[in-house]
Amino acid sequence: MKAIRFHEFGGSEVLRYEDVDRPVPGTGQVLVRVAATSFNPVDDHIRAGALAEMMPITLPYVTGIDLAGTVVELGAEVTGLDVGDRVVAMLPLDSAGGAAEYALAPAESLAPAPQTIELVDAAALPLTGLAAWQTAFELAELKPGQTVLVNGAGGAVGSLVVQLAVDAGAHVTAVDAPQHADRLRGYGADRVVGPLDLAAGPAAVGGPFQVVVNHVRLSPEELAQLTNYVADGGVAASTAGPIPENPDRKVRSASLWVRSDGAQLTDLVAKVDAGRIRLHVAAHRPLGELAAVHEEAAAGRLPGKTVVLVD
Ligand SMILES: NC(=O)c1ccc[n+]([C@@H]2O[C@H](COP(=O)([O-])OP(=O)(O)OC[C@H]3O[C@@H](n4cnc5c(N)ncnc54)[C@H](OP(=O)(O)O)[C@@H]3O)[C@@H](O)[C@H]2O)c1
């Protein structure tokens, strides 16, 4: 089968489009014929070796953490799934494998694919959806009626955090560049503003807020300024670097390390099918162009969430 993998860490040039053996499902695993995967910023960090110390991987490594496809074979002791089921999954980061014609997924990572959108577009959901879910509900412990600032709200994770927060009954202030504003209003954000002037402080955007969620890569000094946007007793949650706590004001902080969770993903799929969250896919690219996708992401030229078509 065809797959995109790297044999050594490096830039996008280490990605090779090559023939590899079709994997065989072991106990508790499912073999999926992949319709699509999607690009996530962490794919770039893994390929570059930036996570090698904290998360050792075996080389060669087939890239692609997201997966949408069809079950073709069940390993031993797998129950509740059938050949032909359409599924989505976030694959384990340390073994991944989605950028291939066939991929192995732990059975517990799988959820039924949404029925109301194209199967390939469902590949935009797993990692970003789980990151949004875990940030909003596990780290921030978001409650109905709370005020929430989402920084980087127009991005892949931020767009889902905004929608999950609105769906949960929170009042959302969404921060991102103007080209995202109409879409963010459409998600139900109460207030949509351009990039923060951190020196101006929270009052300039209607804060402080009970919850601040950050998805923007900021310097340690800028992250420290974000603490000022959190109301006394509130919480800061970040997917892009830790926001310092402020014990005097009882402001706590938490950072995300996203994990695969089939039950949470099943819940996210139900929200997609109920029209309570919408996926914004900015581009579709064929598998053979994945190295170019990595290169464009590194150069800041990707138009947004990019689905990579395998089938
Ligand atoms: N630790 C984890 O488990 C985990 C999991 C998932 C994601 N992440 C990280 O979370 C971050 C977000 O991921 P993503 O997939 O959502 O990335 P993304 O789609 O690139 O989203 C980032 C968003 O931030 C916007 N932005 C950039 N600079 C800004 C600024 N100064 N003010 C306001 N908005 C700004 C971008 O706008 P433009 O598009 O206009 O540039 C974009 O809409 C990444 O750093 C990713 O690595 C971490």
Automatic annotation (TrEMBL):
Pfam family, one: ADH_zinc_N_2
Stretches assigned to the Enoyl reductase (ER) domain: 10-308
Gene Ontology molecular function, alphabetical: oxidoreductase activity
SMART domains: PKS_ER
Top-level taxonomic group: Bacteria
PANTHER family: PROTEIN AST1-RELATED (PTHR43482)
Protein name: NADPH:quinone reductase
Native source species: Marinactinospora thermotolerans DSM 45154
Lineage of source species: Bacteria, Bacillati, Actinomycetota, Actinomycetes, Streptosporangiales
